[in-house]
Design goal:
This protein is α+β, with helices and mostly antiparallel strands. The protein has 2 domains: 129 residues, Diaminopimelate Epimerase, Chain A, domain 1 (Roll); 112 residues, Roll (Diaminopimelate Epimerase, Chain A, domain 1). 22% of the residues lie in helices and 43% in strands. It contains 6 helices and 18 strands. It has an 18-stranded mixed sheet that branches. The longest helix has 15 residues.
Length: 261
């Protein structure tokens, strides 16, 4: 069989920035093993698979080594594919996922996603975390999905060179590191998930579901301009709305073609 494939730079205003995702519309989901093999072949942080479901779509996300319950940048990329290629008259789409229904709407400059917030709680000690990061955090918080470490400055955050093998041994799928922002940004972050086959993710929507409520507590606000300071880098506008988080960003198409399976 042959099927279409798109590669989209998400949370980006121009190519070669943000986080690249593969998006593949299918008539029906293939076996899990086949979907995983395709994601490994694509070798991007995420491959999103779309199946039309009446007026909506079902959506699944795979890293090169595992399926994940939530992915922001590949959802943003999927929305761009639906509204720019599959049905250009649409201004919104609902994706049915492992994290429930996720609505994405068109804006003047990109798209805005409605995601579940991921609150966190302070934790006193995480064995091996400071050694893995190479810095002693000011504070560490946790939820079921990730640890998050606060460091003192953006400079410290940008200069981190974590021990990825040690990060992979920590008992969470990923580690977010964050710091106060300067200039145009309220906070900055990086995300490390070697256990999921992603040593450092360029721009991570799901991480901002944890970052937004955390910085809301610290800053006493509910709207933020954030920057993920990976090598590619990307900007996300975050709005905390009760138990939900709005994440807004733009997309740029890089590749369009077909694959043979």
């Amino acid at each position: 069989m042959r099927t279409r494939i798109f590669q989209v730079d998400a949370f980006a205003s121009q190519r070669f920035e943000g986080n690249p995702a593969a998006v593949m519309p299918l008539d029906e989901f293939l076996s899990d093993a086949t979907l995983q093999a395709i994601a490994a072949e694509n070798n991007l942080a995420e491959t999103a698979f779309l199946v039309r479901d009446a007026a909506d779509y079902r959506l699944r996300w795979f890293t090169p080594i595992t399926e994940v319950p939530l992915c922001g940048h590949a959802t943003l990329a999927s929305a761009a594919v639906v509204m720019e290629r599959l049905d250009e008259k649409r201004n919104a789409v609902v994706f049915h996922t492992l994290s429930g229904p996720l609505t994405v709407g068109r804006t003047n400059t990109g798209y805005v996603m409605d995601f579940p917030a991921r609150p966190s709680e302070p934790i006193s000690n995480v064995d091996g975390l400071a050694d893995a990061l190479g810095v002693v955090p000011v504070e560490v918080v946790a939820n079921a999905f990730n640890y998050m470490a606060l460091v003192e400055s953006e400079q410290i955050l940008r200069e981190l060179v974590p021990d990825m093998a040690a990060v992979a041994r920590i008992d969470r799928p990923g580690v977010i590191v964050t710091a106060p922002g300067g200039g145009a940004y309220d906070f900055v972050s990086r995300y490390f998930a070697p256990a999921k086959g992603i040593p450092e993710d360029p721009v991570t929507g799901a991480a901002h579901c944890m970052l937004a409520p955390y910085w809301a507590r610290r800053l006493g606000r509910t709207e933020f301009r954030a920057y993920q300071a990976s090598r590619r880098g990307g900007e996300i506008i975050c709005r905390l709305k009760g138990e939900r988080v709005e994440l807004e960003g733009a997309c740029v198409f890089y590749l369009e073609g077909e694959v043979e399976i």
